[in-house]
Sequence to fold (826 residues):
Amino acid sequence: MSALPAVPAHIQALDRDDPLAPLRAAFCLDPGVIYLDGNSLGALPRATAPRLAEVISREWGSGLVRSWNTHDWIGAPQRIGAKIARLIGARPNEVVAADSTSVNLFKLVAAATGLAPTRRIILTEPANFPTDLYVIQGLRDLLGSRVEPRLAPPETLASAIDEDTALVVLTHVHYAAGRRWDVAEMTSRAHAKGALVLWDLSHSAGALSVDLGAAGADLAVGCGYKYLNGGPGAPAFLFVAERHQAAIGSPLCGWMGHAAPFAFDDDYRPAPGVDRFLCGTPSILGLAALEAGVEMFEGLEMATVEAKGLALCRLFLRLAETRCPQLRLASPADGAERGLHLCFRHDDGYAVMQALIERGVIGDFRPPDLMRFGFAPLYVSYADVWNAVETLAGVLTSRAFDDPRYRERAAVT
Amino acid sequence: MSALPAVPAHIQALDRDDPLAPLRAAFCLDPGVIYLDGNSLGALPRATAPRLAEVISREWGSGLVRSWNTHDWIGAPQRIGAKIARLIGARPNEVVAADSTSVNLFKLVAAATGLAPTRRIILTEPANFPTDLYVIQGLRDLLGSRVEPRLAPPETLASAIDEDTALVVLTHVHYAAGRRWDVAEMTSRAHAKGALVLWDLSHSAGALSVDLGAAGADLAVGCGYKYLNGGPGAPAFLFVAERHQAAIGSPLCGWMGHAAPFAFDDDYRPAPGVDRFLCGTPSILGLAALEAGVEMFEGLEMATVEAKGLALCRLFLRLAETRCPQLRLASPADGAERGLHLCFRHDDGYAVMQALIERGVIGDFRPPDLMRFGFAPLYVSYADVWNAVETLAGVLTSRAFDDPRYRERAAVT
Fold:
């Protein structure tokens, strides 16, 4: 394709004035790549490869089994949990890093049903992220009539919460549309009916200024490999508000959630606090990479991070309106109602995205026709946004996406 | 401490004749360390650090989200599962690598209760590895009277299997004593009563010649970070015999266990085969290290591996009988009834082990008074065994373990 025009001076000025601009150099990003998929897999921090080399060669290779103590492997879930806690407005003792988002969802959905044995309904929205829906369905199959999954569309969801609702499971920022719930408002509406809320923060931790404490939140889970830059399939995290910790129990009782794991008792006795939601042996390599990713946020205010992300989204939208009229916005038009990704409909969305990726602009596709672009504030620049829209405009105008090779579906879309 | 005497010629000859001896150079082991704790955390293969550097820098850093397809991250659980399958006598399509041993235990214990809804008993032995016991207790707390955990001592366990037994959960090689069950015999005795057996292979995969297929085994789980050398907290594996796969369902329904994960359907539809036991996004860094560890077994017959391990144990026992009469063997005296670790009682076991570790001989301690030594056949030599016994004899004879600093308990024993 032809070279893009030079980035205009007013766009360059935005990057010059961006307080987060220096952070980009702390990530490995190949020249020629504009990465707008940090909402699916965050970019690689420069610190990660040397950190992992150290953990592998020195801690594992030389330290061997001794490193559980000498390098505090055993404390990694809580230590990293505390660092994530700061990013989501939680207390350090309310978060642990462990397992996958799906497994953590199961733990907390099941635990919440135990807190409200007389209430049967677990309420969520249709077209939520699949794993959030499937975990609830799996629990229903396991527990039978004690649990009844119920779906309500976002417009009427709040009014569907009733005296039989044990738990409301909501993804703070919708994985496709990018629509954002008001955490405090929905938590308060659920509490008014005596229900709890479990927030899936997969698309907001490390992106938005979340304040679980101020919202009176009950339970949350989130993903380590998106905006937290923990690497592919990184350990996830879970949050249990301090006030619930004494009464709530994990259904996945593993030795790491025991009050005294190395006493090797026959009887399970839950650890005090959120630690009881640990289960098996912590995944040290994954946790080390997650820790390096989370440390990219050290010293940053999440309000600054969110503000830049929203500004990147606004710029993309404004430029795309003029340059890419073929696209239909599928995300809310109002930035206050969105997370940090934008979603557009296009009948040839899959092929358009493949053509874009081949031109170095990496977003992703979600069925049936959604093109998704995420704007991770730590490494995406305003110039990236401008270049991305120009490239997209070129693909759309030239109909480059008509090339049949862009229609071959890969295993992972 | 004083230098050890030279390794006798007849011990050196054993190493010279050992077909597995060349493999030791494929592991990173510091000079001065004799590592007899591969049953807790396997040693670091030389291939692992460069493999992880490649996965991190090239696949994640440059490939970014594209590597789910281009580097087949998405196929890692099945690809590595198939490599593990060969080591345990399973078919390639009967094993996946995923999650932790504890989480996989939960999946399969819960799944087995679903297969036999009229049977309530889940039978295991007291003093089994804690997580195996706790997972069953947690399921009982979740499901109530549908599930009843029952304990029977090993001597009478087979006769305790009855028409109300849904599942027998046994650890093939006991984590402490090292006592070994006969997989084929116990499976057959359970089947005779219409019960299934779930084998925990944590201390046998990569150590013993296991043949799940020949034994008619139903279900199994195992650990990636012991004899499989997958690194601290490596992903675990699970096995479901092909004949059970169509009827059995996972209680942890995550998007990766869906028949079409990237269709983003609202309704859970289990993947065909063992894939339905996948749950969240696979942990790619952990799986890459596990794959490097499992590949250490390429081209090896497990019968050769087991034979060397048992020979190392016999040598240790024979030398220790003469040189360390202070120890009382807590493992079966007959090698055919043991795995690849030995356990000894000593009233000051904890302090003795600390003194040994300081002298470069790394084993571990399990309460109340058990010193454990594991003999991983891929990197432990006969000379190591001889030197370890000499060092142990020195510690015991000199009462070096009386030093108060060896009595300070660490978080992880």
